[in-house]
Design brief:
This is UDP-N-acetylglucosamine 1-carboxyvinyltransferase. Pathway: Cell wall biogenesis; peptidoglycan biosynthesis. It catalyses: phosphoenolpyruvate + UDP-N-acetyl-alpha-D-glucosamine = UDP-N-acetyl-3-O-(1-carboxyvinyl)-alpha-D-glucosamine + phosphate. The chain has a four-stranded mixed sheet. It has a four-stranded mixed sheet with strand order 2-15-17-16, covered by helices on one side. It has a four-stranded mixed sheet with strand order 4-5-3-14, covered by helices on one side. It has 14 helices and 24 strands. Helix 10 links the parallel strand 18 and strand 19. The chain has two domains: 202 residues, Alpha-beta prism (UDP-n-acetylglucosamine1-carboxyvinyl-transferase, Chain), CATH 3.65.10; 209 residues, Enolpyruvate transferase domain (UDP-n-acetylglucosamine1-carboxyvinyl-transferase, Chain), CATH 3.65.10.10. The chain is of the alpha/beta class and 423 residues long. The structure holds ligand EPZ.
Length: 423
């Protein structure tokens, strides 16, 4: 397994182009299942997860080709298989995004249950509640969920989500595009990736109002055509680089971004004393001499993103004062704490809260990545720490960050990847 080695303690500086958003690319790949021909997806990040979803779509019968690095063409006209196998789903729970489009297009979807992951149990009861409301018959057996539409197809319904779920609302929205009649989804997730998916479905001929707001209305249509799309930038990658400027005492400009998607992170970095300026699609972050502590409570969009909680915690370990960080979305998203403590951080845990007492500096250590965003947190800590940090199990990082160490090297960081067996 690969490792990343960082010689920390130096400010980073410069500009970095943000890649396409993983969490928009995955549902949009799934949405191509609903099309009848060739879709072209541009600005697709080259990640383990995007390669996995491409493999899944192929498994269903589509022809998928990757051209020029960040462009994919997907020919969905040959999709006939409604089953997503355990072998693929176990590596990426977002494979459950195939449920909605498959049952809408083929009348059936059989997807291995995603199972939990490091950050929580992550059930899909809300996904199934919505599909059942649209008339589907749900059967759970042998680790699979088997969803069957009635012979006459799905029928629109009024669905109020019990909680905010991003992929839950995506699955239901995709299924409803071909359901007869009107579907209204209340208490819908408002993440930019939901809006991006809605915009793609509309390009395919779907009749959708309100994607990206708390109430989404879908009028079913008979069929959808394939369409081309450019994937939106990755707001979590951008926020991670912004946080890297802050933790290293440096100055970074992220380009090809949309500041509106990272408003909560910009506010929090400003609270910590950073100077943040937005000019068009560029966001510049200049670190203060010494970071101020700040309290954080994760929340659904537009609140502070849970996918930035671990990275911000790294920042707070060397801020002036005490910070309280509450994780309200996932029940086990503090796996980075033990690793940060190995680097000298002073963090105590109580329920879903972490209390961080700022220390003068972190010191490099051998640490282990446990999940995608915890890995990013350890990279940030390593960039700030005095001495050498060795991060193992970086395959977690490769799920969601494209060429991360190269991008940080270009910003002046002393960071390199050491290839291990097994990737
Ligand atoms: C999406 O996951 C993202 N992944 C996650 O990003 C992100 O952390 C999360 O949304 C929250 O913003 C993708 O978009 C591929 P949820 P998702 O359904 O949709 C509970 C990353 O690092 N819940 O919004 O799976 C669930 O357990 C990843 O890029 C149910 O109980 O998250 C969680 O506690 C990590 N039942 C909460 O709701 C359900 O049916 C939010 O989950 C669905 C969810």
């Amino acid at each position: 397994m690969d490792k990343i080695i960082i010689e920390g303690g130096r400010p980073i500086g410069g500009a970095v182009k943000i890649s396409g958003a993983k969490n928009a690319a995955l549902p949009i790949f799934a949405a191509t299942i609903l099309g009848d021909g060739v879709s072209r997806l541009a600005n697709v990040p080259d990640l383990r997860d995007t390669r996995t979803i491409a493999k899944l779509i192929e498994e269903l019968g589509a022809k998928v080709a990757r051209d020029h690095g960040d462009e994919y063409t997907v020919d969905s006209s040959t999709i006939t298989n409604y089953e997503a196998p355990y072998e693929l789903v176990k590596t990426m729970r977002a494979s459950c995004l195939a449920l909605g489009p498959l049952v809408a297009r083929l009348g059936r979807a059989k997807v291995s249950l995603p199972g939990g992951c490091a950050i929580g149990e992550r059930p899909i009861d809300q996904h199934l509640k919505g599909l059942s409301a649209l008339g589907a018959d749900i059967e759970l057996a042998h680790g699979y969920v088997d969803v069957k539409a009635p012979p006459k197809g799905l029928t629109g319904a009024h669905i109020t989500m019990d909680m905010i779920t991003v992929t839950g609302v995506m699955n239901i929205m995709m299924a409803a595009t071909l359901a007869k009649g009107r579907t209204v989804i209340e208490n819908a997730a408002r993440e930019p990736e939901v809006l991006a998916l809605g915009e793609y479905l509309i390009k395919m001929g779907a009749n959708i109002e309100g994607a990206g707001t708390a109430t989404i209305t879908i009028e079913g249509v008979a069929s959808l055509r394939s369409a081309d799309i450019v994937i939106i930038p990755d707001r979590i990658e951008a926020a991670t680089f912004m946080a890297a400027a802050a933790i290293t005492g440096g100055s970074v400009t992220v380009t090809d971004m949309d500041a509106a998607m990272v408003g909560a992170v910009i506010d929090k970095l400003a609270d910590c004393g950073c100077k943040v300026e937005t000019l068009g699609a560029d966001i510049s972050v200049q670190a203060p001499e010494k970071l101020r502590s700040a309290n954080i409570s994760t929340a659904p969009y537009p609140g502070f993103p849970t996918d930035m909680q671990a990275q911000m915690m790294a920042l707070m370990t060397i801020a002036n004062g005490t910070s309280v960080i509450k994780e309200t979305i996932f029940e086990n998203r503090f796996m980075h704490v033990a690793e940060l403590r190995r680097m000298g951080a002073d963090i105590s845990l109580g329920g879903n809260s972490a209390t961080v007492l700022g220390v003068s500096h972190l010191s490099g250590a051998e640490v282990m990545a446990t999940d995608l965003r915890a890995s990013a947190s350890l990279v940030l800590a390593g960039l700030a720490a005095e001495g050498e940090t060795v991060i193992s199990r970086v395959y977690h990082l490769d799920r969601g960050y494209e060429h991360l160490e190269e991008k940080f090297s270009r910003l002046g960081a002393n960071i390199r990847r050491v290839k291990g067996e097994g990737g």
